[in-house]
Amino acid sequence: MSDDIPPERTAASAASKPIRILLADDHALVRRGVRLILDREPDLRVVAEAGDGAEAVEQARKGDVDLAVLDIAMPRLTGLQATRELVALKPGLRILMLTMHDNEQYLFQALKAGACGYVLKSVADRDLVAACRAAMRNEPFLHPGAVTALIRTYLDRVRHGEENPDHLLTPREEEVLKLVAEGHSSKQIAELLFISVKTVHRHRANLLHKLGLHDRLELTRYAIRAGLIEA
Fold it and tell me: What is one Gene Ontology biological process annotated in the Swiss-Prot or TrEMBL record (predicted)?
């Protein structure tokens, strides 16, 4: 087995502990495939798995992990929402987004949330290992298309004197929006978030006002555009 591993990498991995990785994706088959890619490297080890963003946060809270590899589109908490919580919970934790979406909006939101890399699932077998190692060196990792998107967007903003407004919603409003868009009732949302139904109604009213929307259908469409849920 070690015949395929360069001697210098084998020596380096023997001298240091493997990078402990938390892997979160709501598809078990995807997790299995990604784990195979990571665990075959001597310096990488998946020590925890999660099927959604909320479980990922809980796993990070319970165990010692160095790096979280998160899918973006997951139930309960998206990878983006989980990233924000993980950054607050464990500031030293490195976070990579692993996604099928080659989407500028997701890219910008991921970086803003605190992710240090953005890897496409379609090329995970080529890029993911390098991205993990870069993250642990505190270096950003972006696929070439993402770098192009960042440069293009920056130049467009400079050229037109425009800036994208910061995210309009508070983290709690975003949680309520996601749950509303997923079809939960106000009572269910109150139970899930441990708040009162009255507070849920207030958040919904604030959402409609801030976003200039009128009903649940428009909130759902906004949530899809914002990457909170999948269409």
Answer: regulation of DNA-templated transcription
- CATH for 45: 3.40.50.2300
Indicate if 7 and 92 belong to the same structural domain.
yes
Q: Supply the pTM of this predicted model.
A: 0.64
Judged by DSSP in three states, 45 sits in strand
The CA distance from 67 to 96, in Å, is 8
Distance CA 118, CA 132 (A): 11
Closest CA to 227 of 61, 91, 104: 104
Q: Give CA 114 to chain center in angstroms.
A: 9
CA angle 32/117/22 to nearest 5° reads 40
The residue among 87, 190, 96, 191 whose CA lies nearest residue 135 is: 96
- Residue by residue, DSSP assigns 183-203 as T--HHHHHHHHT--HHHHHHH
Strands (E) in the chain, as ranges, are 19-24, 44-50, 67-70, 94-99, 117-120, 141-142
Same domain, 134 and 20: yes
Tell me which residue range forms the domain holding 96.
2-153
Q: Tokens in use for 147?
A: 């770098």
pLDDT tens-digit map of 180-230:
999 999 999 999 999 999 999 999 998 988 888 888 888 888 888 878 887
- The rounded radius of gyration (Å) of the Cα atoms in the chain is 19
Task: State the amino acid at position 153 in one-letter form.
Answer: T
- The pair phi, psi for residue 133, each rounded to 5°, is -70, -40
